Amino acid sequence: MSGEGFWHKAAGARWQRRRLFQAAGAGAGLAGITLAGCGTKTNAPGSSQGGGTASNQPKRGGTLTLSDNFQRGFDPHILQATDTGSFGQFYSTLIRANPRTNELEPDLATKWESPSQTELVFTLAPNIKWHDKPPASGRALKPDDIIFSFKRIQTDDPRFINKAYLSSIDKLEAPDDHTLKLTLKSPDVTQLSNLSVLSLKILAPEVVDKGGKLGSADAVVGTGAFVLQTSEVGVGSKLVRNPAYFKPGLPYADRVELKAFTDYGTEWAAFLAGQLDHRWVPGQDSAAFASQKKDQYRLDWFPDLGYDIIQANVSKPPFNDARVTRALRLLVDHDEFKTQWAAVWYGRARYSAVFAAATADSWDLSEDEYKKYLEWQQPKDNAIKEALSLLSAAGITKDKPLKFTLSGTNGSDYQVPMSQLLQAQLKRNSQGAVDCDIKLYDTTAWTQIRSSSNFEYYVGGHNAGGADPDATFSSTYKTKGGRNYGRLSDPQLDQMIDKQRAIFDEKQRKQAVREIVTYLIDHSPYGSVDARYVLNAAALKTHDFPVEGTTNKFGEHYENVWLS
Predict the structure, then answer these.
(1) Residue-number span of the structural domain to which 317 is assigned
(2) Quick one: pLDDT at residue 211?
(3) Buried-most residue among 28, 247, 559, 564 (CB within 10 A)?
(4) Nearest Cα to Cα of residue 357 among 375, 371, 338, 376
């Protein structure tokens, strides 16, 4: 496939479903190619639910009631995608990805072109206005606002963990009031899809200057379909329809009410009682629910953008010893994680050393291929034998055990049993050579501890923010990546990551990605326990609700949801 195929697509989980441009030949250039020239269908995210038939046309009005709890403020530029997906209700991105297909769609930009392999030119939609709240007070959005946000994200301040997604951009220019031009340092097939990462929301400069940490609903001024009126941690939030929204006819709902819950069980009970319009089904209930309730709810499986990662802090001995980190990964029992943890909390899971399910479905090794590697082989006897040999070579035995703290968060119900299972596996499979304790922090404290790399070894939720494999590689595995909390630095790996970003041929890039995955299996101090899938359940009165994960929200697509 030539370059236009990759520029046009969000290189994600199911980008191969449809080809809007046919290749002119391997290695063809991009000069003059228009990448998107028409508006998105308003009911695209839920097209499988039949929202737009002649007898079932979308309707205006009503209140969409969901669960959410804004605990970390409203500054998307310093938060991971898990915390910013819901922000799409009131903030916008330049472009966005369809949650069902991962194909790119217009948002602030109604079309984009590539005069060359190092240029991207975006035409903004007409009549975009900031919410009628001070200090922006309903003024028109300009390309300079987008440039301000992107430059803010690019800063070297370690708080801005999403800068890797914009690392290829050399120049940001506004030729006129409706055009944004990006000039890249070198050809990069991933830059277009990276612009759809959920954390790259556009903020008004005067709001940032006045709002400080953007900690309250009053400080939230966006261009999205809904206006945030109130928000209280532990209680919930209220949003109303944006009467000046730039997409004609949208949103359909008049209001969105978000309810906060203290635990997943209470939240699930509220959904079953009809108090919520959507919720993911607990894993242990998913099989029976899918079979018995298929006529009572709209059901849809979703390959999650989030997954659970293990990171060793290689700046702290002995985790700077590759023998130690390799041994700890070999002690992990992925089958046990699938059956005794993922199946209970999510419903389905697959092997993956690196990716979330949304990426793994198209870019990863198959499960059969994973089973050829020692870490995933069953029974675990050979992996344990090798792990004990590596630990012994590093001076670690049951008489001189490795003692460390396994860190994480108790901010989500599933995090505690995940940490406990990993601790149990390390102790049991090491036959006493590993003796780790657990320390779990609340959400706020853990965010600070993780971002400052003030831990020895951790397991926890992770989200690269996009389905393209580079979203994971560049943010998590590249030197100084914003999500590279364990301070991994591997020059050879960095070169491999840079190389795959410049490969426009589909087949060649997939091979390069596989080579990185296999390299990480053999060399990385990081790993994954499993990649997860969750079952979505939506009330029958809702139409075109986007599929979501346990923590992934796609608030920008709530504009398309209508209620009957």
Answers:
(1) 303-533
(2) 63
(3) 559
(4) 338
The alpha carbon of 325 is separated from its chain's Cα centroid by a whole number of angstroms, namely 26
CB-based contact 132:138 (threshold 8 Å): yes
Counted domains in the chain: 2
Task: Tell me whether residue 49 is in a domain.
Answer: yes
Lookup result for tokens 């460390």: 404
Query: pLDDT value at position 447?
Result: 87
**Cβ count within 10 A of residue 115:** 13
Q: Output the CA torsion sign for 403, 407, 413, 414.
A: negative
555: in domain: yes
Query: What is the token pair recorded at 513?
Result: 């990605």
DSSP H or E stretch at residue 63: strand 63-67
**The pLDDT of residue 209:** 87
Q: Which residues contact 4 (CB under 8 A, 6 or more apart)?
A: 21, 23, 24, 28, 30, 33, 35, 114
Q: Is residue 274 a contact partner of residue 427, using CB atoms and an 8 Å limit?
A: no
Provide the pLDDT for residue 247.
98
For residue 256, being part of any structural domain is answered with no
| Cα distance between residue 357 and residue 453, in whole Å | 26
CA gap 370, 353 in Å, rounded: 9
Are 87 and 42 contained in the same domain?
A: yes
Residues of the chain scoring pLDDT < 70 = 1-55, 211-212
Q: What is the pLDDT of residue 558?
A: 98
> What's the pLDDT at 29?
35
Q: Which of 235, 259, 212 is nearest to 86 (CA)?
A: 259
| 279 domain-assigned | no
Examine residue 251 and say whether the peptide bond preceding it is cis (omega within 30 degrees of 0): yes
User: What was the pLDDT predicted at 503?
Assistant: 95
Specify the pLDDT at position 564. Answer: 93
Neighbours of 222 (CB within 10 A): 27
Q: What is the CATH number of the domain that holds 235?
A: 3.90.76.10
